[in-house]
Amino acid sequence: MTPATLALRCLLLVVSLCAAVPATAATLQGLRVVHQETVQLYLDLDQTPVDTRVFTLANPSRLVIDLAESSINTDLSGHDFPKGAVSRVRHGVQDGQHLRIVADLRGQAVPEWRYLQRKNSSRLIVDLGLPGNPELNALSSQITHTEPNAVVRAVVSEPLRDVVVVIDAGHGGKDPGATGRRKTKEKDVNLAIARLLYRRLDAQPGITPRLIRHEDVFVPLRERLELTRKMEADVFVSIHADAVPHKRASGSSVYALSLTGASSETAQWLVDNEHSQELFGEVTLDGLSADLKETLLELAQHNTLEDSIHLGGIVLRELSAIGKVHKPTVESGNFAVLKSPDIPSILVETAFISNPSEEAKLNKRGFQDAVARAIQTGIVRYLYERAPPGTRLAARQ
Ligand SMILES: [Zn+2]
Fold first, then answer.
1. What does the radius of gyration of the chain's CA atoms come to, in whole angstroms?
2. Does residue 370 contact residue 358 with C-beta atoms inside 8 Å?
3. Residues 185-226: pLDDT tens digits?
4. Domains annotated on the chain, with CATH
5. Among residues 70, 159, 259, 307, which one has the fewest Cβ atoms lying within 10 Å of its Cβ?
């Protein structure tokens, strides 16, 4: 950014701040300096401010965070950090309603920032792009302990975790799924591909895969959901093979979570008739019950559908590289198994088991592994862009 555009931006900021009438002010409730592979500032607010500006100043090196129409319920003044990229954090209030946070830096930061929105809170994560020093975590916990009431903590030790990818092999046990003309059972093909995907993801640093079923057992849909929750999934992928009466249909499809309701009737209907084309389509919020609407709005707030569609799109691209794609875009289906509100979820129809040549392919180890590799690559690409905060993959970004 040139000085001229910076000046213009500042001017625009001043103008917009003067014109703004605070509707509901955001309150900064805590700030943390977190050392991972890079240094990050976590600013915890009760809601996302109406406007946020993050920029750096040189000589001495500083990071400035302007939060419009925001206040603070703690005191950041004069908090010193003897080591690490951040030496000091302070704040000021402009016009009695706009909050400015200034961090004095050791080093020239190239900041990137984003909000992580929750139901009743919002976290601004500013990545300084400066190398972190995990050893400072131990030092900082001490600072935290000697000042139990301080909202500002020098560094909080947050060990990085793996991203958990839950792999769901569709059907199983008494539920064979679709059956091909040569008697190939969908449940077996699904499990074979799920296991190959498991092995591939397990070899990937920063990812812990989990299988919903390891063998030929029946797992009810509701239980699959509960297991996914218990496994603390970050990403969920369900593996199936398609079937239609018309034997020429071919190619793979990917479905993302849909905003339709998951009633038990839907789940039952799904068991009876999972691959019906009538299942899909755009659905509005009209006519849904109040609590379902609330759930759906929460979903929208978490951007999960967007995440699911994005993930699905990447996986579909990978699948198109190894074979035919049945539909060129990600569909949203109301499969009950995809109803985990805050977990990006996709369902992959690997191929048509009802198509004799695709049935033959589905039985071949080479094809099964090619599908597994395409899904693996898609998931990894997705995580490269959107790994959940606090994970090793996010720290690497
Ligand atoms: Zn299926």
1. 25
2. no
3. 999 999 999 999 999 999 999 999 999 999 999 998 778 878
4. 24-146 (2.60.40.3500), 163-396 (3.40.630.40)
5. 159
- Interval between CA 216 and ligand 1 midpoint (Å): 14
**What is the C-alpha separation between 394 and 397, in angstroms, rounded?**
5
* Separation of CA 157 and ligand 1 centre (Å): 43
Show the DSSP H helices in 84-238 as ranges: 136-146, 186-202, 221-230
Please tell me the number of Cα atoms within 13 Å of 73 on its side-chain side: 10
Check if the beta carbon of residue 52 is closer than 8 Å to that of residue 68: yes
Strands 79-80 and 86-94, sheet pairing: antiparallel
Cα(201) to centroid of ligand 1, in Å? Answer: 22
Query: How far is the centre of ligand 1, averaged over its atoms, from the C-alpha of 293 (Å)?
Result: 28
Ligand 1 center to 376 CA (angstroms) = 20
Q: What is the pLDDT of residues 328-383, one digit of tens each?
A: 777 665 554 454 556 788 889 999 999 999 999 999 999 999 999 999 999 999 99
Do residues 37 and 132 lie in contact, with contact meaning Cβ atoms separated by under 8 Å? yes
CA 379/CA 337 separation, integer angstroms? 18
Question: In terms of DSSP bridges, do strands 86-94 and 98-105 run parallel, antiparallel, or are they unpaired?
Answer: antiparallel
**Span from the CA of 350 to the centroid of ligand 1 (angstroms):** 10
Give percent helix, percent strand, percent coil of the chain, each to the nearest 5: 35, 30, 40
Bond prior to 344 in cis (omega within 30° of 0): no
Distance from the CA of 248 to the center of ligand 1, in angstroms?
A: 18
| Sign of the dihedral defined by the CA atoms of residues 129, 114, 390, 317, in that order | negative
Bridge partners (DSSP) listed for residue 179:
185
122: CA distance to ligand 1 center in Å?
Answer: 38
